[in-house]
Structure formats: C-alpha cells, structure tokens
Amino acid sequence: MASDGSITRLIVLLKDGDRDAAQPLWDAYFRRLVGLARARLRGTPRGMADEEDVALSAFDSFCRRAERGDFPQLADRDDLWQLLFVLTVRKAIGLARHQGRARLSSPATFVQNSRCLLVVCSCHVSLFAFQCSSTVGRWEPGVHR
C-alpha cells in the first residue's frame, strides 16, 4: 500500500474532483475490500453478485460521494479505511438481504408421500421436511438431515 502521505494526497485530489486519483486508491485497497466483503458474505447463498462486486460498489459509492463533498472529515488513510469498511459492510449486508429475498420468493416444489412433505426451492439446495401427524391434514415440523 502506498505511504501515508500519498494516500492523503490522493484523498485530497479525489475530493477536488480529480478522478485519476481513484485508480491508485482502488489498487491500494482492492484486496482488503474484497476480503472484508468475502468475510461478511460467508454463509450466504451465492447469486449473480459476489464479493468483488460488493467491493466495487462500495468504492464507487465512496468516489462519487467524495467528489460531491459528502465526507468533509475524511483526511487520511485511517479515515479512509474506516469509511470504506462501513460502506463495504453495508453493501455486503444489502446484497445478502437481496439474495435472501430472491431465494425466499422463488418458486417451490412440493413433493408428498404418506410419511412426509418435502419442499424443494429451485434456487436453494436445502430440503425441508415436515412429518405428517396422526391427525389427517395437520402437519408438524420435523427435522430432516
């Protein structure tokens, strides 16, 4: 990563509207942002977007907002990392929620036999089973592993 002085200088240039300052900042922080996004997305279903998309979106938001003057307190590499950290985590949370909604709203297939009901979601690999109780028409949740 670049020295503290050059990161600070690049921040000033970017805030002043110099879009060329974004590339060296991106080069300096890309791996950390991707690693952070990967950690935050761990365990969530994968969709069309991934941790690199989260990092890119967070960095793009930072650049656009820095040019607009939305970060008057942004002065050095420590401020920058704190800001990029928050933006990346929020983008990762948003992506996880979006992918979760997509998974939950997907069509499901129901398969029934005399002992259980299986629900298979088309975009999720988990199977859910409910055991039939002795009362006709009443289902009790059961554990299926």
Which structural category do the helix and sheet elements fall into?
A: alpha+beta
Q: Mean of the pLDDT scores?
A: 75
Proportion of residues in β-strands: 5-15%
User: Spatial order of the strands in the main sheet?
Assistant: 1-2-3-4
Our Rg estimate from Cα atoms comes to 23 Å
Oligomer: single chain
Q: Which runs of at least 5 residues are low in confidence (pLDDT < 50)? A: 103-145
CATH topology call of the largest domain:
Rna Polymerase Sigma Factor, Chain: A
CATH hierarchy, class of the largest domain: Mainly Alpha
Shape: elongated
Element-by-element helix/strand order = HHHHEEEE
Q: How many H/I helices?
A: 4
Question: Ends: how far apart?
Answer: 47 Å
What is the number of strand segments?
Answer: 4
What keywords describe this structure?
single chain; alpha+beta; Rna Polymerase Sigma Factor, Chain: A; 4-stranded antiparallel β-sheet
Outline the structure in words.
The protein is built from 4 helices and 4 strands. It is elongated. Helix content is 54%, strand content 14%. It has 2 domains: 4-104, Rna Polymerase Sigma Factor, Chain: A; 108-141, no CATH class. The protein has helices spanning 4-15, 22-41, 51-68, 77-104, and strands at residues 108-112, 116-121, 127-132, 139-141. Helix 2 packs across helix 3 (51-68) and helix 2 (22-41) crosses helix 4. The model is unreliable at 103-145 (pLDDT under 50). Strand 1 and strand 2 (116-121) form a beta hairpin. It has 145 residues and is α+β, with helices and mostly antiparallel strands. A 4-stranded antiparallel β-sheet has the order 1-2-3-4, with no helix packed on it.
